[in-house]
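In response to reviewer comment 3 from the previous cycle, which asked for concrete evidence that the modeling workflow produces usable outputs, we include below a single protein chain processed end to end. The sequence was submitted unchanged, and the resulting structure tokens are shown without manual editing.
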Amino acid sequence: MSTPVRKTQPLSADDSETLWRKDRDHFIHPFTHFPSFERDGSLVISEGDGVYVYDVAGKRYLDGIAGIWCVNIGHGNAELAEAIGEQAKRLAFFNTFVDTTNPPAAELAAKLSALAPDNLNRVFFDTGGSAANDTTVRTIHFYFNRLGKHSKKKLISRHDAYHGSSYLTMALTGVEADQPDSDLPPDLVR
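The workflow returned the following structure tokens.
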């Protein structure tokens, strides 16, 4: 197996420093530990190839979490980039709220429904795990409200299980280190 090679040159020390400062001074990252971030800032990743990513100095790292779970076919995939480009030329995005759709959403929904067991024939697309779990809780509450069971709101979650980083999913997660001073909904999760 060949070793991946960077497609671009590392940034100069001045450019790297400028980028690092812009990030430190203006970008709030999820789960930021502010004292160390103010001092150390971020590791700036600037390029990816397959399962590897490179920082601005050119150092290579194995991307063991696939860009935090959303780059499951690797970085720099030419086939995917071409498909994204072709779709963006036709329609970069259009919402699916209420009664509008777009061809990729309808086609993917049908394909996923065909792959799922017979009684699972509808899909709901979301932007990530946190939003999907928020939507699931909202759907459950809506469902029981429609049945007239308005008090059926409690959720069960494992202690220290991770379910997302949004406000609601932080309550579901139960990781106490992620919840300081958060005023989470009382008695929602058991």
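The beta strands are 45-49, 52-55, 60-62. We consider this sufficient to address the reviewer's concern, and the full set will be provided in the supplementary archive.
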